[in-house]
Amino acid sequence: MPERPEEPRGPERPERRRRTRRTWAGALAAVLTASALTLTGLAGQASAADINNAKNAGYESGLTDWTCSAGSGATVSAPVHGGASALKATPSGQDNARCAQTVAVLPDSTYTLSAWVRGGYAYLGASGTGTTDVSTWTPDSSSWKQLTTRFTTGASTTSVTIYTHGWYAQTAYYADDVSVFGPDGGGGGDPSPTIPSAPAGLKVASTTSSSVSLTWNAVAGATGYQIYRGGTKALAVTGTSATISGLAASTSYSFQVTATNAAGESAKSAAVNGTTTAPPGGGGGTALPKHAVTGYWQNFNNGATVQRISDVPSPYDIIAVAFADATSTPGAVTFNLDSAGLGGYTVDQFKADIKAKQAAGKKVIVSVGGERGTVSVNDATSATNFANSVYSLMQTYGFDGVDIDLENGLNATYMTQALRSLSSKAGASLIITMAPQTIDMQSTSNSYFQTALNIKDILTVVNMQYYNSGSMLGCDGKVYSQGSVDFLTALACIQLQGGLAPSQVGLGLPASPRGAGSGYVSPSVVNNALDCLTKGTNCGSFKPPRTYPDLRGAMTWSTNWDATAGNAWSNAVGPHVHALP
C-alpha cells in the first residue's frame, strides 16, 4: 500500500450490528490533525494591494496552471459554483486525486486560502509556506460548501503549492473558485471580482401548505444567492430558484434575495410576498402540529409494558406501529397483530383504537423494518409490490402512512419509486417518516439520505436514531460521542445543512436505559438539544451556525419502554416539544 499523506483521514464505515429489537453498534475512527480545521471564513481586513493570487481559479481555461495526479482531474460544465466550469477529480484505490498549482507570494505575508467544494470528501491545503503548512477538509456534501484556512509565508518564501484532493477509493469531488487572497506575489492572478448587483425579477413560483418556491433573474458575476425571509437569512443557493420549507400553513411571508461572490454581498432585491396554502386533511381530518412527538408502539412483548394503542399517552402525536412483516412476494409487506402476546388484543379493538387516536388528532402509521426486518425493495417490481401492499394495509387498518426503518440497507432509487407510488395512491395526507441509524445520515451520498432528499416534497420527518452508535462526525468536521447534547445537535446539523427542512428533522432517543444497548440520555438532555437547535440556548460546546425554530421535534423507542419507566420521557419531552417556538 502507498504511504498515506499527512492530512486527516476521512471516517471509516463502522461495523453494523442490530439493536436489541432496535440495536446496532458502530465505531467510527477519525484522525484529526491540529491544522486549524474550519469551515467558516477566516478572512481578515484586506489592504488595497490584496488580490487573488491563484491562476485560472475558476477552471474557466480547463486545467491550465493546474496539475492533477494520475490523470484524475477534468473540467466539467455542471455542477459549477461560479462561471461556466469547475474541477471534477476522481480518486482511485491508490490515488487521492490531488490537483495542485504553484502560486507566487510575498515573504512574511499572510494569505487566506479558500475554495468551494462538493461531492466526495474534499481537502484544501498549502505546502511549502516556509512556516506551518495548513489544510482543511469536509465530509462529502450534495451542495457547494466553502473551505477556508490561512497561512503565513516564511522570510524567504516566494512561492507556495496550493492543492485540493479527495480520499482514496471515495467518490469524485468538485472544486471551484479557488482563492489565495493576500498581497500581490507578482504571479499575475485572476482579476478580483466586484460586488454583484441586486437580483431582479424575484417572484413566487408556487406554494404548498408548508413551503414557498421562488425564482429570480441571474446576476452577472454572482457565484451564489442568499434568500431572506422577513429580513432574516433563511437559505443560501447557487442557482436562481429556491424553496423555503418548514412554513406554517395559511400564512403570508415576505422574501428578498441578494447576490454574492468573493467580493461580497449585493443589496437586497425588492420584496415579494408568498402565502402558504391551507393544510391537507387526512388522519381524522387534522394536520400534524408544527412540533410533534413520535413514539414506536411494540406489537410484541419483550419485557416492556404491554400496551394497546389506546394506552399510548396523549403527548405522542405520531404512533408508529412496529412492525410490518415481509412476505414471500419481493417487496411486499403484511401486518399480523400479536393478539396472544398482547393479552388477547383483537384486530377489531386495534382498528377501533386507531380511529379513536385519529379523532383525537393523532397519526398512526405502520413501521417497516426493525431488527428482523427483511424487506428488500431493489427493483421496479418490488417497489410496486411495496407500494401496493402498504396502501392495502392503510385501507385495512386505517394507518395514516408508513415509517421506513430498514436497518439492513435500502436502495435509494427503488425506495424513492415505491414511496412516490404510495403517495400517488394515498394523496396529500400521507405521513412518511424515516428512522435511519447515525451512519446512514453522515453524508448525502448515503442511500437513506438520498432517499430522504429524493422525496423531500412528500416527506414528513426523519427521526434519526441517536443511540446504539459509535462516535460520529458533526457538521463542523469534529468527532462527537453519543450521550451528550453536542452529539445530538452537531449530527442534526448535518441533516439541516444537507438539504432537509427543519420541519423534517427530529431527534430519536430511547425512552429508558432498557430501550437501547447504549446512548440513553435523560429527558433534560433531549430538551437542551431541542432548545439549542431551535433557540440557541442550553447548547454544549457545539453551537449551530443558526437556529432552526421550525425543527419538528423528537422520537422515542418506545411507548412501551416509556410506560415501563412511568412515562417519564413523554411527560418531560412531550410538553417541551409542544412549547417550542
From TrEMBL:
CDD domains the record matches: FN3 (cd00063), GH18_chitinase_D-like (cd02871)
Every Fibronectin type-III domain range: 198-280
InterPro entries: CenC_carb-bd, Chitinase_II/V-like_cat, FN3_dom, FN3_sf, Galactose-bd-like_sf, GH, Glyco_hydro18_cat, Glyco_hydro_18_chit_AS
GO BP annotation list: polysaccharide catabolic process
Keyword terms, alphabetized: Carbohydrate metabolism, Glycosidase, Hydrolase, Polysaccharide degradation
EC annotation from Swiss-Prot or TrEMBL: 3.2.1.14
Class of this enzyme: hydrolase
GO MF, one annotated term: endochitinase activity
Domain named GH18: residues: 291-581
Similarity comment text for this entry: Belongs to the glycosyl hydrolase 18 family. Chitinase class II subfamily.
Record's protein name: chitinase
Phylogenetic placement of the source organism: Bacteria, Bacillati, Actinomycetota, Actinomycetes, Kitasatosporales
